[in-house]
Structures are given as C-alpha cells and as structure tokens.
C-alpha cells in the first residue's frame, strides 16, 4: 500500500504532498524533512529504493523535480517506480509547461491514479478523461 506521495524540488521544498493514511501535521513536517534529506543526498548511481523506518521509499528524479513515494513492505517497488514514470507522462501529456499553477489538476490526476493507497488506473486516456470534461465545461 502507498502511504504518501511527495513532489519536491532540488532545494528540498515540497511542491505537492498527498497522504493516504492519517499523519498528524507536525509529524508530516519532520517526516518530509527526513525523507527529502535522505533522497536528495543520494547520487544518481545509487538505487532508487531506500529502506526508511517501517516503510520503503521509491523515488525518481526528473530535471529539478523529485517524486518520492512511501510504501509498506508488501508493495512492489518496481510497480511504484513505473507508476512515477506514468504519472510524469500523464503530466507531460496534459500540461504544456508549468504545472505549479495548476496543482488542483495535478491532485485530480493523482486521485485518478491512486485511491486509498492502491494503484487503480494507469491508462493515460482514462486518467485524463475527467480533466478534459472539466476543461470543456469551463469553456462553455
């Protein structure tokens, strides 16, 4: 099961966070700081899977953006690693450039892909369908 999803820039600032189980706000801050520090300090030659406390971290870097997903011991790391790439491909397909001004739409994309910590959809067309309907309604 996926516990959390983070998008972080190279400076260590969280750009997007989504938790799939309850974590108190003050614990989220320290958890994110530890996770970011652990992932950003690794070199490109090191594995993208990291053991951390009672779960595993799966991360991937795209230019100046890191995507970090915390999963439990039962989750398949390679499937989550590919989920990250699929997520980035969906973002590339929908957004032309800047996504930081459209975080509400990024959340919709993430909600279409992951439900209650489980991967439910990977088909790019199905993931984007609700957004395209919203865009058509906004034009009308």
Overall SS class: alpha+beta
Radius of gyration, taken over Cα atoms and rounded to an integer in Å:
15 Å
Number of helices: 4
In percent, how much strand structure appears in the residues?
Answer: 25-35%
Largest beta sheet, briefly? 5 strands, antiparallel
Helix content percent band: 40-55%
Describe the structure in your own words.
The protein is of the alpha+beta class and 140 residues long. A hairpin with a 4-residue loop joins β1 (2-9) and β2. A five-stranded antiparallel sheet has the order 2-1-5-4-3, with helices on both faces. Strands 6-7 form a two-stranded antiparallel sheet. The model has no long low-confidence stretch (mean pLDDT 92). It has helices at residues 25-40, 77-94, 103-113, 124-139; strands at 2-9, 14-19, 49-52, 55-62, 65-71, 114-115, 118-119.
